[in-house]
Amino acid sequence: MKYKVFWMLFLLCAFAKAQQESSCWYFGINAGIDFSSGTPQPLSDGQIVTLEGCATISDRSGNLLFYTDGTSVYNRDNALMPNGDDLKGDSSSTSSAIIVPIPNDPSRYYIITVDTDDNRYRNNEGMFYSVVDMNLDNGNGDIDVFEKNINLLTLTSEKLTSVKNATDDGYWILTQFEDRFYAYELTSSGLNTSPVVSTVDPFIELITSSITNVDVSAMRGYIKLNSAGDKLVAAHFSNNSTSEFSGITDVTTARSLAYNNGGELYLYDFDNATGIVSNPVPLATKQDGGSYYGVEFSSDNRYLYTEADYLIPSTTQVINLDRAEIQRFDLTSSNIAASKEVLYTDDTNTLRGALQIGLDGNIYHATIGLESLARIENPNDPNATYEQNAFALAPGTLSQYGLPIFVQSFIVNADINGEDSCLGDPAQFSASSPDSILSIEWNFGDPASGNDNTSTLINPEHTFTTTGDFTVTAEITTAFGVTIQSITVSVFPDVVVNPFQDSFTVCNEGFEIGTFDLTSVITELEQDVDNQTIELYPSEEHAQNQTSPITDISAINNTTNPETIAVHIANDNCEEILPIYLAIENCDVEIFNILTPNEDGKNDEFVITGLRNIYFNHKLSIYNRYGAKVWEGDNDDSPWNGTANTGLLSTGEVLPSGTYFYILDFNEAEKEPKSGYVYLH
C-alpha cells in the first residue's frame, strides 16, 4: 500500500462574495470605507455626521447606491435625495436604520428606522419604514412619496438587525423592546407588517423617572443575527429599574447610575423559517458589571466578539471608568459564558462603539473621536488579535460610536478553497456559501488537461499536467446572484522514487524476533537522485509526524510479526511515505554433532541453532549405542550437557565418551523430525 502526503500543505482560501451590497461604508463624521477592490480604502466624500446609527447599500457589484443616518438619505453622488429628509430615525440611535432590498426587484429598497429621544425615550416615535425607488431622480433614486415613514411599532429600542430567511426568497428584520423581539418578513410581495413576536428574557425596563436621559441608556446597544440565521445576540448597555432612582434628584448622579450599574449580554436561537427567537442564554448579566454595546459574529459563526465598559457610579461625573474590554466567546463550547476570553483591556479609555465585520473578513471597531478604526484580525482564527488604530480614516474625517449595519447575509463570503499539490497527485477544491449554491463552474487554468480542466462539482479534485502556479476560477450561482472568484495554487515537482526492495524475510531468532539489515533500501533510493532526504520510521504515523526515526538501519529488530515500517522520502515541498514489509519465518535448524562438556566454553552443550524459543513444542531424545534412552528434554529444559536424566544411567554424571543417537521431533505439521549422531567426548 502506498501513502502519498503533501509535505508542506498549503490550503488556500478566497472569498467569493455572494453579494457586495456591504462594500461601501459611511459613518461618523464624514468618514467612509470602500471594500469593493478587496482591500479596504478610506473614503472622504461622506455627507453624514452621525453620533451612532447609519446604514449604507451598494449594488451586487459593489457600486454605491445610497446611505443614511436614519434621518437623511444621500444618493450615489453624495447628494441629498429630493425626498430624502425627515425620516423617523435619529443619528443618536444605536442602529438608526437598516437597508433591505426587495427580493427580485433590484430597483426598490426598504429603509427601516428606529428613533431615540435623549431626554425622554418614551417620547420616541418608534419603528418606521420608507421605500427607495432607484428608478426615480433619473436613476439616482429617491424615496417614494407614498411609502415614506410608515409606522410599524409605536415604541421600540435602538436595535435593528436582518438576515435572509430559510427559503432564500426574503429577509427577516428584527427589533427588540423590553422582553419582546419583533420579526418582520420581507419578500417579493413586500413587507409583512404583522411581526412574529417572541417573548424571552431579559426584561429591559423603560424607566419612567423624570430625570433627563436616564431611560435612554437602557435602550442602547446592538443586536446582531449571525450569517447562518440561527443565532442572535443582544447587547444591553444597562438594565435599570425605576425604583433604583428613588430619591435621586440631580441629573449627574442619575445618569451615572444609569450608565454604570451594568447591562446584559444574551445569546438566543433564531429560527429563520418561522422568525421565532428562543432559548435565552445569559453570557453576562447586570451583576457582572459590564455595559455592553458593540457585538459581532465571526464569519464562520464560531466566535462572538463583544465590547464592554466597566464603569463606577459617581456623584460628580457620568463616565467613571474602571476598565474596558474586547471579549470573545466560543459558541462551540459546552459552556459559552465560561468560554469568555479578553482580547484587549484598556484602563484609560472607554471602548464603547460598534463592532462590524467587513468583506475582508476582519471585524472593525469604532470609538468616538478617533481618526482611525481598531480591527480584530482574522476573527475566525483561535489566535485572532485586536489592533488599535489599525485602519486610518481619510484626513478630516472621524469615527464616532457607530458603524453601518447590514443584512448579515451580505457580510459573509462564500469560501472557495484549494490546496497546493505535488505533480501527479490530485489537488482538492471546495466551495461553500451561506446561501444555497445552485450551480458552480470551476476552471483549473490547466488547458492541457482537456475536458478535465473544468468541473461542476462543488468539491472537485484536479490533477495538474505540469508544475507551476495555476489560477483556479469558480463561478458560483446562488439565489442571490452570480459571482466569480479566483485563487492561485502551486504544483511542485514530486519526489523521485527509484525501484527498491520493499519486502524482507529473516529467520526467527526466538520469540518471533529477527534482525533486518535495510541499508540496501537507502542505497537504492539514493541512486542518481539529489536534494532528497530518505529516512526509515517504525510506522506510517511516525513517518507522517517525523518522530522516532530508525537510526541503525543495519540492525533493525521487529516488534510484531509480520510488521510494516515506513520509508519517508522528501524534497523541499513534497513527501512520499511508502511501506516496507518485514516478516519472520522459522528457518531450518543447524545441528552441531560434537559435545565436549569440559567447561571450556566450547561445545559444552549440544548446540542446535534455530530451535529454542522458535519451535516451542519440540522434543529432543538422546539414545546410547545400545538403543537405551538416556536423556530427553523440550523447550523448557536446558540443552543436553552430556549427562543422563532418564534410564539406569541417570546418575547426574557425564556419560561415557562415545557416539550417541538423537531424535528431534518438532511436533509441528509439515515439519519432519530430524535424527542423527552426536559424538560425546
Automatic annotation (TrEMBL):
Annotated signal peptide: 1-18
Gene3D superfamilies xref list: Immunoglobulins
Sorted UniProt keywords: Signal
Any Pfam family hit: CHU_C
Top-level lineage group: Bacteria
Cross-referenced PROSITE patterns: PKD
Keyword rRNA-binding belongs to the record: no
Stated name of the protein: PKD domain-containing protein
Species annotation: Nonlabens spongiae
Taxonomic lineage: Bacteria, Pseudomonadati, Bacteroidota, Flavobacteriia, Flavobacteriales
